[in-house]
Amino acid sequence: MEAQNGDEGEKVRYGVPPEAPTARRRARLKKTVVLTDGNLVVDLPVPSHLRIGIKNVMEEMKTVRYTAVTCDADDFEAERYSLRQNWSGRDTELLIAITMYNEDEILLTRTLYGVMQGISHLCSRKNSKTWGDGAWKKVSLSMLQMVVVCIISDGRKNIHPRVLDCLAALGVYQDGVMKSHMKDKDVTAHLFEYTTSFGLDPDLKFKYPEKGVVPTQIIFCLKEKNAKKINSHRWFFNAFGRLLQPNVCVLLDVGTRPGVKSLYHIWKAFDVNSNVAGACGEIAAYKGPYWSALHNPLVAAQNFEYKMSNILDKPWESICGYISVLPGAFSAY
Fold first, then answer.
1. DSSP assignments along 193-238, one per residue
2. DSSP symbol at 76
3. Measured distance CA(307)–CA(311) in Å, rounded
4. Of the candidates 158, 191, 236, 172, which has an alpha carbon nearest to the alpha carbon of residue 83?
5. What is the pLDDT of residues 4-14, one digit of tens each?
6. 94 Cβ partners below 8 Å, 6+ apart?
7. Quick one: which of 18, 171, 215, 306 could link to 50 by a disulfide (CB 3.0–4.6 Å)?
8. pTM
9. If we measure between CA atoms, which residue out of 233, 247, 284 comes closest to residue 98?
């Protein structure tokens, strides 16, 4: 087809318009899932490279379990929800909570890797009746049955996307499986359960078992809506705590990096004296290399407040036999 171009009288030739590529339609796959006690519980396979360095790979390292929770935290047990610990008939000695909101992946890996180092230290204590080499033999058979790490995120829309990427790299999270409704009910929380065999340090570098990292059982609870930190602690104590019945519960805020021996010392306070109901350690502000962060007046003020609380307030209250407030950033019950 030809057309004349205005004043110049040039003829412009138009060819046949190209055919638009047809979009390839992918058929939606529908899978029928048998409900477990009336609840949606699905075991999803994980890639084989997420089981690095483990000789006897158990089923919990091959699959991640997803549970869509449609009830409140107080009704978790009444609605017949369960955790992998319950299915295996295990006892829980230490239950660790890491609460978060919209923090980035650096703060999460800083806390989670510190917890993994603390668990490795527990298993390295050879003279301990509870931990030590004997405990590691139990651990190798039942995936660190005595310690459970619970990450609770406040709001599905608020969580940082790179945090989900880090959890997916560890095998704890899988995208595209969460449901918003179940049996005409709104889903209130999404549970992912997995036992990872390696960790991520704050530099986002993988740390494998040869670096001292032991298998860690992780429960990732992603709440559908933002309901504040108190509600996250309700999920920890009233939902997961009631089912697992741990001897010691540890509370951590994401961004708090526990020392290598911190978990052992705070657990030991309860092991030595059965009358102890709560304990906390010293929290120090991150001062940076060569204490350079102290040039910031906000960091300097926070460091002063923490030191005064650790030197004066908490020791005096401990002598009196009663501590008024335990810091939620690092405390145990």
1. EEEES-EE-TT--EE-GGGT---EEEEEEEESS--HHHHHHHIIII
2. T
3. 6
4. 191
5. 555 555 555 55
6. 122, 146, 147, 148, 246, 247, 248, 250, 263, 267
7. 171
8. 0.85
9. 233
